[in-house]
Amino acid sequence: MSELHNIVLKILEKGKGILAADESTGTMTKRLNNVNVPSTPENRLLFRETLFSASSMSECIGGVILYDETIKQETSKKIKIPELISKMGSTPGIKVDTGAKVLAGSPDEKITEGLDGLRERLKEYYKLGAKFTKWRGVYTITKNFPSKLSMRSNAHSLARYAALVQECKMVPIVEPEVLMDGEHSAKECYEKTSEVIKRCFDELILHKVDLKGIILKPNMILAGNKSKNTISNEEVAKLTLKCLKNSVPSEVPGIAFLSGGQSEIEATENLNLINKYNDTNFIMSYSYGRALQQSALKFWSKNIQDIKGTQKVFNHRAKMNTLATQSKWSKDLEV
Q1: Which residues have C-beta within 8 Å of that of residue 302, sequence separation ≥ 6?
Q2: Which CATH number fits domain 3-334: 3.20.20.70, 3.40.50.720, 3.40.50.11540, 3.60.140.10?
Q3: Annotated active-site residue in 143, 148, 217, 228
């Protein structure tokens, strides 16, 4: 077994998932402003350090995706953040794209940038302790989108990124996110997501990426947030599984879903049902940001020195999602 494959299995072992704590400074500032906490480097670090030193890090969280600012910070006890994460039994990772920009030739769509100088940045992150990375491509659904141009451009970027990451002995998380924004039906989401994922794997194979050494981070199959045609959680799970069975090569060891606009409970319930019906060899786990942190952030904002209380809230959410990876979650546990 390759070293990259072993890293994937370590991150996703025993129902563990990934904490996406890679919000940019701008995004984190919005989150903190929403709960009336000043967005200083110290406060951003304090919140993240609170989560990274929680007991669920060793029990439920197999990997943490960091942002450039965070991976270079030290804790209040002068421990480097990647060292703290490793000490807790988890694996440090890093977001390496530089964001989605307007796609030339289709100005209503986005292309993710960050390939320039990536090889050099990867070497730096590897030295800082990162063992895996993340790159997100975004796609919108309308009558005409995602366009062939958007699908090809983003798939090409994701594949070039993944090849460079594996060259640097790290595991790439490949994240093609078909956004929930819009009036589209779940059927349209299924069709477009299938097309997007297939295009990504065509490019990954073309770029000689070792599929046993990647983690796919897709969206679930959901109706748009403005759609009149909602579907049940059972249908979400069954459509999501059908999409992945038909689009993802069997060599891929793990799939870690993004929560993308779902509430904390919805993201957990859908993951639980996906695992209930999972008849594949794929490990089906989570790579959640808000769906792991939102309740903890609200609690923390009332008293940012209440570390234990904040950790208790975070531990609960992490535990619920890890139970969902084993289809052992139920609403009764949310009391």
Answers
A1: none
A2: 3.20.20.70
A3: 217
